[in-house]
Amino acid sequence: MEKADYRCLIELFENCFYADYQTRLVAGDDEPLYQPGTAGADHQVIFAHGFFASALHEIAHWCIAGAARRQQVDYGYWYEPDGRDAEQQAQFEQLERKPQAIEWLFSACADVPFQVSVDNLGGIEVDRAAFTAAVRAQLVAYLRDETLPPRAERFARALAAHYQQSYRSVVCQFLASA
């Protein structure tokens, strides 16, 4: 299996969370979606088009979502599509800072590149560097203050072990660069 093969993420996610949360990671054909289970059906974290980065991003959202949010389609959030104005983009970046920080940690643990997603190709010009700095600052705060959501830490450690990396070294790299 090659390094960024999403199938290993499905297996790792299953091993980490299925017994406790009856939730499966699923490669989708379309846009990402969280689908809560009903009538004995499993919950599903569906990522886009078999993309490794999409899977990491959707797992990050799931790791942040509390129990009540995990009972709602897409955690009860409303998504503003491409073409956002400055105010909408600022709100998007505020909301996306935390999951993208966790995604960055996951990427580092899997030894794959990370790039923030501003997700506004048809909208205003976005300051990608400023958003990257905000996402990094959020990740450093999670690690420095030991406030990383427990499921996120659990999955990050599983990724690091699978990709033969030291979780502690990954964390130290972020903290040293702060």
Describe the structure.
There is one protein chain. With 178 residues, this protein is mainly alpha-helical. It has two domains: 6-76, no CATH class; 86-176, no CATH class. 52% of the residues lie in helices and 7% in strands. It has a three-stranded mixed β-sheet. A hairpin with a 7-residue loop joins strand 2 (33-35) and strand 3. The protein is globular and about 45 Å long.
For the biggest β-sheet, the strand order reads 1-3-2
Q: Mind telling me the C-alpha Rg?
A: 16 Å
- The chain-level mean pLDDT equals 91
Largest beta-sheet details:
3 strands, mixed
Strand content: 5-15%
Shape: globular
List the uncertain runs.
Answer: none
Given the helix and strand composition, which structural class is it? mainly alpha
- What is the number of helices? 6
- Which percent range fits the helix content? 40-55%
Give the end-to-end Cα distance, rounded to a whole number of Å: 34 Å
Into how many domains do the coordinates divide?
2
**Succession of helices and strands:** HEEEHHHHH
Total strand segments: 3
What key attributes describe this structure?
single chain, 178 residues, mainly alpha, 3-stranded mixed sheet, 6 helices, 3 strands
Layout of SSEs?
Blueprint: H1 6-21, E1 23-27, E2 33-35, E3 43-47, H2 52-64, H3 86-109, H4 128-144, H5 150-162, H6 167-176
Parallel strand pairs: 1-3
Antiparallel strand pairs: 2-3
InterPro entries: EpmC
Pfam family, one: EpmC
Protein name: Transporting ATPase
